[in-house]
Amino acid sequence: MNLICECDKETFLLVSRNIPELNEAGRHIRESTFPVYVSKELNLERLLNLLKTPDSGILVFDADAKVVVDLLESGTAPNQIILCGTMEHSAKEHHAIRNSRIREFTMKTISFDGISDVCDSVMENANRFSALFLLVHLSVLDSACTKGGSPAGMSSRELVYFIQRLKNLRNLAAADFCGVTSEDAKLISKLVAECL
After folding, report:
1. Degrees to nearest 5, angle at CA 177 with 76 and 134
2. Where are the domains of the chain?
3. 184 near 15, Cβ under 8 Å?
4. Residue 85: which of 64, 102, 57, 100 has the closest Cα?
5. What is the topology classification, in CATH, of domain 2-195?
6. 3-class state of residue 53 by DSSP
7. How far apart are CA 127 and CA 79, in angstroms?
8. Alpha helices in the chain, H assignment, sequence order
9. How far apart are CA 144 and CA 77, in angstroms?
10. Closest-CA residue to 133 (of 27, 56, 45)
11. pTM for this structure?
């Protein structure tokens, strides 16, 4: 795995210090499998470039659907997107998701159906892609876990569970953690370590 930090130096040092398998350059010492990006802001251009791979798809963990609307407006096909962990939508987001029939797993679905069953469904949907890109915006987490989180969001343990399961997919091509600040260094260290 290559860890590519696009955040401030302090966050990078805190993250890399908590992952002993990383060397000073931020590279994983073992065999490289897929890149992991850590950034403060979402890099939509990078996502669009990754999605140019034929039959690729993206699994988005986010509290809202702003990223999905941006992807749709940029020409990404709705069948390339899976949305997980959402809690709230603006009218525009709601309209975009319903009209494009994007596969969505809300926090309510996770709560009612159980995390294991929802994760099975997410993996089944994600497995059809030739290359899967995982995007985790920290807003999907509960506000108790991170400053930028949302009330009644996903717990860090639930997100770790998803990552532990998803990393076993053979088609996982990249992971991107965004919305990261220096206050999230320990949490991001744990999430990145789970990708190893």
Report:
1. 45
2. 2-195
3. no
4. 64
5. Arginase; Chain A (3.40.800)
6. coil
7. 13
8. 9-17, 44-50, 66-73, 91-100, 107-113, 115-126, 156-166, 185-195
9. 34
10. 56
11. 0.87
Judge contact between 192 and 37, C-beta under 8 A.
no
Closest CA relative to residue 26, chosen from 6, 46, 41: 6
Q: Which conformational region is residue 156 in: left (phi greater than 0), alpha (psi within -120 to 50 degrees), or beta?
A: alpha
Residue range 43-91, pLDDT digits in tens: 899 889 889 888 999 999 999 999 999 999 999 999 999 999 999 888 9
135 dihedral zone (left: phi>0; alpha: psi -120 to 50; beta): beta
Q: Please choose, from the candidates 71, 69, 105, the residue with its C-alpha nearest in 3D space to the C-alpha of residue 87.
A: 105
Sheet strands side by side (includes 103-106): 2-6, 35-39, 172-178, 131-137, 56-61, 81-86, 103-106
| Sequence-distant (≥ 6) Cβ neighbours of residue 100 within 8 angstroms | 72, 78
Distance CA 163, CA 196 (A): 10
- Six-digit token pair at 84? 């997980």
